């Protein structure tokens, strides 16, 4: 039966890294479902032996499910999200299979957007940076068009918070960091995406999916990349490098 595991579970442990957006997806889903869990952060640059022993891909997140004296380790964020949908109350996927397939597809688009964000902050030249900025903006153009097909907001599926929202909350967190560095125009001309971003930023599950020092940690990560964006950070006045993000 659907929720038997929830009743029998002894403990859920989310193995995490403080900057990983894929971990944030799982944390948001757990919070939205009201499921208690323990979060354990590791250093991916110095992975502990116990982690290497249970993580086939050497990546986070991992969800360690301990019940009846046994442990099941689930890896890959998409699989963790689906497991939680199958075993916990308060579903975040739509019930209709056609709508559910659409949502799963846009979750994949969210992963592709994270990859594009990585290329943006890793670009080493001015030309490369501008090209990646344009490509990233075009991806949000696609989102703008998709949101226009289902008006009403504030969420991807209008009035119902879904796993798509859980996936894009961490995506927009990167844009918060970029806004502290400069105005790159990525969301120019995209009022629906901007409104969605603002609503997500105010959702408690998304706000609390990272530690209070996350902006400082992400800023330090971006500054250390040795990329074109890193150079822009170094040009900024250090006293204003972490000024409040521009409004969505």
Model description:
By secondary structure, this protein is an alpha+beta fold. Helices cover 54% and strands 9% of the residues. It has eleven helices and four strands; from the N terminus they run H-E-H-E-H-E-E-H-H-H-H-H-H-H-H. It has helices at 4-8, 21-33, 49-54, 77-87, 97-122, 126-148, 163-179, 191-201, 204-207, 214-223, 228-235; strands at 11-16, 38-41, 62-67, 70-75. The chain has a four-stranded mixed β-sheet with strand order 2-1-3-4. Strand 1, helix 2 and strand 2 (38-41) form a beta-alpha-beta unit. The longest helix is centred in the middle third of the chain and has 26 residues, at 97-122. The chain is globular.
From the structure above, extract its key features.
alpha+beta, 4-stranded mixed β-sheet, 4 strands, 248 residues, 11 helices
Identify the overall geometry: globular
Q: What is the oligomeric state here? A: single chain
As a whole number of angstroms, the C-alpha radius of gyration is: 19 Å
Structural class: alpha+beta
Poorly predicted spans: 1-7, 239-248
Q: What is the H/E order? A: HEHEHEEHHHHHHHH
The chain-level mean pLDDT equals: 91
Q: How many β strands by DSSP?
A: 4
Helix segment tally:
11
* Beta-strand residue fraction: 5-15%
What strand order characterises the main sheet?
A: 2-1-3-4
Fraction in helix: 40-55%
Q: Distance between termini?
A: 43 Å
Fold topology:
Blueprint: H1 4-8, E1 11-16, H2 21-33, E2 38-41, H3 49-54, E3 62-67, E4 70-75, H4 77-87, H5 97-122, H6 126-148, H7 163-179, H8 191-201, H9 204-207, H10 214-223, H11 228-235
Parallel strand pairs: 1-2
Antiparallel strand pairs: 1-3, 3-4
Helix pairs in contact: 2-4, 2-7, 5-6, 5-7
């Amino acid at each position: 039966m659907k929720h038997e595991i929830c009743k029998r579970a002894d403990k859920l442990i989310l193995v995490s890294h403080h900057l990983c957006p894929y971990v944030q997806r799982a944390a948001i889903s757990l919070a939205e479902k009201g499921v208690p869990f323990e979060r354990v952060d590791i250093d991916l640059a110095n992975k502990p032996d116990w982690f290497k022993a249970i993580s086939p891909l050497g990546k986070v997140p991992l969800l360690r499910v301990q019940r009846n004296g046994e442990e099941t380790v689930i890896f890959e964020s998409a699989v963790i999200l689906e497991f939680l949908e199958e075993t916990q109350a308060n579903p975040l996927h739509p019930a209709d299979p056609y709508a559910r397939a659409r949502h799963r597809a846009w979750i994949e688009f969210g992963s592709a957007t994270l990859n594009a964000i990585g290329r943006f902050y890793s670009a080493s030249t001015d030309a490369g940076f501008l090209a990646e900025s344009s490509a990233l903006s075009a991806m949000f153009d696609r989102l703008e068009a998709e949101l226009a097909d289902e008006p009403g907001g504030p969420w991807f599926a209008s009035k119902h918070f879904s796993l798509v929202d859980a996936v894009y909350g961490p995506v927009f967190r990167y844009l918060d960091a970029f806004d502290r560095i400069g105005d790159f125009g990525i969301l120019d001309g995209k009022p629906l995406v901007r409104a969605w971003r603002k609503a997500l930023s105010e959702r408690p599950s998304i706000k609390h999916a990272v530690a209070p020092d996350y902006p400082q940690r992400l800023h330090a990560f971006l500054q250390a990349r040795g990329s074109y964006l890193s150079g822009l950070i170094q040009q900024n006045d250090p006293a204003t490098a972490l000024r409040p993000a521009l409004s969505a």
